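Q: Predict the assembly, please.
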Amino acid sequence: MIPASFEYVRPKAIADAVAFLQQHGDDAKILSGGQSLIPMMKLRLARPAYLVDINTIPGLQYVKEEGGYLRIGGLTREADLEASDLIRSKYPVILDTASVIADPLVRNLATVGGNLAHGDPANDHPATMLALGAQIVATGPKGQRVIPVEEFFQSLFTTALHHDEILTEIRIPIPPARSGGAYFKLERKVGDFATVGVAAQVTLDEKGACQKAGIGLTNVGPTPIKATKAEAFLRGQKPDGPGIQRAAELAAEDAQPSADLRGPVEYKKAMVRELTSRALTRAAERASR
Ligand SMILES: Cc1cc2nc3c(=O)[nH]c(=O)nc-3n(C[C@H](O)[C@H](O)[C@H](O)COP(=O)(O)OP(=O)(O)OC[C@H]3O[C@@H](n4cnc5c(N)ncnc54)[C@H](O)[C@@H]3O)c2cc1C
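A: Predicted assembly structure:
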């Protein structure tokens, strides 16, 4: 349980951190909350020669609306989301998500940027960001680039980030009127990773039909999954009994779970169906308020 030895640096600016990452390539790893990286180092599953602690870089911890987007700084902690009046009042799907991640001790340190950059399909934010159509801002040697979240998760623990890029911001288009979202997670016990999680975000038209729907699935495949068949089906549909039932079946078809200590494939698919139905129902209720 003791990590291999490593050098530790604390750059004071993004440019310094990027330059260090560029110089040391795959030998250097960014440290944010350390809630995934440090356990992996203790188990010797990760052995970086250099840790680049970005916690002392100012200006990376914020939650605000600006220029048509909700902007979340890469270093924003889960606890910051839970305490944010903006998130509590306007983005219940993000509050649902942050508040079921691990436990309060972990949430005081773990960052939203780290949660996405880690590329773990069991992490909870990826599904929610897929449902919300987020954009990921990566800052590297050539400046900033914006990556649509549906292109971000490439394979198990692998994202579109380059080794010398820092995830500096998450941008979520501010949802129009009559929008609502919800996240449901099934866990074996409080604080556990999801057996299955489902995020849903809908925008209704004036007649109450779905103008737009986003659905993301947690821990039922090698990457977080965007349930595109269910999303396409919902467009123009009323989010009521039969519509939600069919969308939930389509989401279960998109899931690719494997059997493990959290259950067999059939059980996990059934849970995707059930949680999709619950998430869509609550999202539609919230959109109608
Ligand atoms: C007991 C326990 C239970 C947990 N349960 C859950 C759970 O239920 N749901 C859940 O979603 N998560 C869970 N987690 C994971 C936790 O939320 C992680 O800490 C978080 O996902 C990673 O964020 P971090 O800031 O700690 O990242 P770190 O551990 O510091 O880094 C993780 C990885 O991301 C990279 N990285 C970090 N920040 C950046 C950045 N800004 N730019 C580029 N790369 C970066 C690092 O180099 C590293 O490879 C749990 C963790 C623990 C210890």
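The chain has a mean pLDDT of 97. The longest helix spans residues 265-288.
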